Amino acid sequence: MSIRGIGETAERVRRFTVLVQPGVRGSGSGVLWSSDGLIVTNNHVARAPRAKVTLWDGREFEAEVTARDQRRDLAALRISAADLAVASDRDSWHLRAGEIVLAVGNPLGFLGALTTGVIHAVGPLRGLGSRPWVQSDVRLAPGNSGGPLSDVEGRVVGINSMVAGRLALAIPSNEVRRFLERQTNKNWLGVRLTPVLLPRTSRQPLGLLIAEIVPDGPAAQASLLPGDILLAANETQFRSVEDLSDALDKTPAPLLRLEFLRGDYARVRKVTVRVRTRDRQGGAIAA
Questions:
Q1: CA spacing 20 to 30 A to 75: which of 44, 51, 173, 236?
Q2: In this predicted model, what pLDDT tens digit does every residue of 195-250 receive, in sequence order?
């Protein structure tokens, strides 16, 4: 079946699709989301704090990971560039079964590879929880992850994430937009965190080690220190980094009650932090 203008559409999509190389084994794709260097990709693609990004025209940049959502498999990166060709997105809830979609990415070393398919559904998939997916029959391969799924007009409707059986799954563009909005509007603590396993004698198996603190940020003003291990916020124990992000989102007042360890696994300390709205930060500060 011939689609009028498909070649021109594919070329536009290629221009806002990038190659992401995290400096560890493997590589993936990403989408230029804003002209000042914001890139969206999968969390499992941007595994390291930094990555090398290659644009469609061969230019290479060092990128920093500025935000993550492990549960939604999204990450935001930023490069120092301007006036870039960027994606436009479409409301993913307006997608209908039978629509033709395009996936562009960098599978198996082939840069800017194109594949087409048909939408099967938009919604949750059995066995993968309640979150919605754009489900299609485009053929994805390693290296497509993090790249765009677009409609025939070149508007991004999802970020390709994985394959389940014969279906390709993409994170809906609406979810991507919410992820990015959270980074600018959410409460902010000013720390970079690393999950760590705790001794069996501890009351919970996992804590969040403070690896870095922003000077004069909320955590620093509350006298938290690098090396402290956060256990809970507002009496809810942490099981992942995202649990702290959720606690910050749900805090109606500017005060967040944290429980943490400092040097002694047997003594749980408590502190109340006055959080504030996040300003744009230059580093990959997780919360």
A1: 236
A2: 899 988 888 999 999 999 989 899 999 999 999 999 999 999 998 777 887 788 77
Identified catalytic residue from 73, 89, 228, 243: 73
Same-domain pairing of 171 and 198: no
Identify whether 251 is part of a domain: yes
Q: Is residue 283 part of a domain?
A: no
Q: 285 in a domain, yes or no? A: no
The residues pairing with 274 across neighbouring beta strands, listed in sequence order, are 255
Same domain, 178 and 194: no
Task: Write the pLDDT tens digit of every residue in 7-36.
Answer: 899 999 999 999 999 987 789 999 999 999
- Rounded to whole angstroms, what are the CA distances from 212 to 14, 92, 202, 278? 37, 37, 23, 16
Domain count across the chain: 3
The Cα-based distances of 87 to 60, 107, 154, 285 in angstroms read: 19, 20, 8, 25
Q: Is 44 a catalytic residue?
A: yes
Instruction: Indicate which residue of 44, 120, 137, 246 is catalytic.
Output: 44
Residue type, 114: L
Active-site entry in 27, 29, 92, 145: 145
Distance CA(103)–CA(158), nearest Å, equals 9
